[in-house]
Every structure is written in C-alpha cells, then in structure tokens.
C-alpha cells in the first residue's frame, strides 16, 4: 500500500513540474501599439522632442532560468533607420533587470561579389510586458 501512495505521489509531482515548466516557457503572443515620445540625449537636442508611436508584434518567451526573449518586429512611426523592411525582424534577449538591445542584422547586396554583412544597433528597450 505504501508503494502505491509513493508511486501516485511521484506521478503527481512529475505532472505538476511538467505543467509548471510548460506554462513558464510557453511563448506569449504580443501585438500592441504604444504612444510615447522620441528624443535624443544631450543638451544640443533638448528641444527636439516628438510624439512617437511604437508597434510591437511578435512573441515573448521565458527560459527555465527566468530570462525573457522577444522574437518579432518593433517599428517606430517616425523611424528612418537604413534597414530594409524585410530585414526588420529581431530577437531581443533581456537580462535579469529587463533590459535588452535591439540589433538588426542583414546582408547588403546579397548574391553579389560586393555582399556585406551589416549590423545595426538601434535602441535600448525596457520590457514591462
């Protein structure tokens, strides 16, 4: 009888752990638009504050150690970055404090002898999601 209760308890414990890990690491879909302001640091650009609209589309997942990863696209309404629109998907790895860098990587002149790998660091992003 003791073996039966121990076996049932062990199976229940394993099931709880599996459900917890599944819920913890399951990717959450994000599709939102945020209104804010766009500004540049420094005293030279102190009067250059503009309204900005940020669209976030993708998924946010969490690893077993609790660190979050976003995969998708982040677009700014007044953005003038030199990245082709088809290469704007990014992956952001957040640290334990919720900070992550947006880095776009793409190949310019793909398929030619002048092909160059390009990386573009855009902004620091704070995840409050």
Helix content: 10-25%
Structural class: alpha+beta
Q: What count of structural domains? A: 1
Strand coverage percent: over 45%
Helix count from the secondary structure assignment: 1
Could you tell me the number of beta strands?
A: 6
Which helices and strands, and how do they pair?
Layout: H1 2-25, E1 28-38, E2 50-62, E3 68-76, E4 89-93, E5 99-108, E6 116-126
Antiparallel strand pairs: 1-2, 2-3, 3-4, 5-6
In short:
By secondary structure, the protein is of the alpha+beta class. The chain has one helix and six strands, in the order H-E-E-E-E-E-E.
Structure notes:
This protein is of the alpha+beta class and 129 residues long. It has one domain. 19% of the residues lie in helices and 46% in strands. The chain has one helix spanning 2-25, and strands at 28-38, 50-62, 68-76, 89-93, 99-108, 116-126. The radius of gyration is 22 Å and the shape is elongated. It starts with a helix and ends with a strand.
């Amino acid at each position: 009888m003791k073996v039966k209760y121990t076996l049932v308890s062990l199976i229940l414990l394993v099931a709880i752990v599996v459900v917890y890990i599944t819920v913890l690491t399951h990717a959450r879909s994000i599709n939102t638009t945020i209104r804010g302001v766009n500004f540049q640091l420094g005293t030279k650009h102190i009067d250059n504050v503009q309204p900005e609209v940020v669209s976030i589309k993708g998924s946010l997942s969490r690893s077993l150690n609790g660190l979050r990863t976003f995969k998708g696209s982040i677009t700014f309404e007044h953005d003038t970055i030199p990245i082709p629109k088809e290469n704007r998907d990014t992956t952001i790895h957040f640290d334990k404090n919720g900070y992550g860098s947006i880095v776009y990587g793409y190949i310019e002149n793909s398929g030619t002898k002048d092909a160059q790998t390009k990386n573009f660091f855009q902004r620091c992003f704070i995840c409050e999601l």
